[in-house]
Amino acid sequence: MAQELLSIKNLSIGINGINECSDVVNGISFGIKNGEIMGIVGESGCGKSITALSIMGLLPKNAMIREGSILFNGIELSGINKEELRKIQGKDISIVFQEPMTSLNPLITIGKQVGEVLKIHFKFTKLERKTMVIDTLKKVGLKSPEELYDYYPHQLSGGMRQRVIIAMAIICRPKLIIADEPTTALDVTVQDKILDLLKEINREFKTTILFISHDLSVINKLCDNVVVMYAGDIVEEGITRNIFNNPVHEYTKGLIGSIPSKEKKGKRLVNIKGKVPSITIKKIGCGFAPRCDNTTDQCFLEKPQIIEIGYKHKVACYSTKRDSDINNVG
Predict the structure, then answer these.
(1) Rounded to whole angstroms, how far apart are CA atoms 290 and 313?
(2) Angle at CA 67, nearest 5°, toward 63 and 81?
(3) pTM for this entry
(4) pLDDT per position as a tens digit, 298-324
(5) Are 243 and 313 in contact (CB under 8 A)?
(6) Do 322 and 248 meet the contact criterion of CB atoms below 8 Å apart?
(7) pLDDT for 60-116, tens place per residue?
(8) Are 56 and 65 in contact (CB under 8 A)?
(9) Cα separation of 197 and 177, whole Å?
């Protein structure tokens, strides 16, 4: 059985405001095994990206880990000093962001940017680095990598730039790649090619991938397991195909119901009413209760704990217990 590469336990992240610190992640726990592709899904503002940034040690200055553990390959990352963190960033853990132009320096050639992480972590010669960069650009499906080596980011298409970012992420053969909405800005055709590329990297190098998205249909194409986040909490998690075929939490049902498909042609898609609450609003009870059509008074008074309801399937919802009680009576 594969061992856990990343184990997050009771992680809480706060953001300092003008008057007080507001929690954006509320004591979440999950683990990723070696060679696994795990997805985190949820709307904007649910805590997905800031969770990823906390793993990389890239939290903004006004954010902090309030409590909890981030254990990566036996190393505790929460509270690790900057020098030790630099040895891991890029080499053992790398990240692919949504918009490549924010990650690429417009004034530096592609070859130098992709090779920079090799220069930081290894003592290769300039020629050895160039050879490895060209090989990696070829590996991510870029044609004429020898020419691209001297190109600048503005000379490439959006899909090509995203492949360059992935080349930067894999060139050191990291144990973990965090992909934060890497296909959102791309058209559907290019998106599918990037997803196929990530699958290939996972198969060939046994690289563990944490894939973050607001789109559950993308998660379904790529990920072995999925964590559904809402307002800083994990509301459901499990094997992706099981969650997709048998969603339990009303929020997960809404996300799946909003996905267009051939079967739904001509039918009205699900529209989850309302929006994710602001982090400045103190939440009492279930964070999703104000948007849910299946609530009782308890939902507004007490936060539900996440419980196991089946094989590798967990959910934080009082309606699960009610449904179970009804079935038992019947």
Answers:
(1) 24
(2) 70
(3) 0.91
(4) 999 999 999 999 999 999 999 876 454
(5) yes
(6) no
(7) 999 999 999 999 999 999 989 999 999 999 999 999 988 777 789 999 999 999 999
(8) no
(9) 13
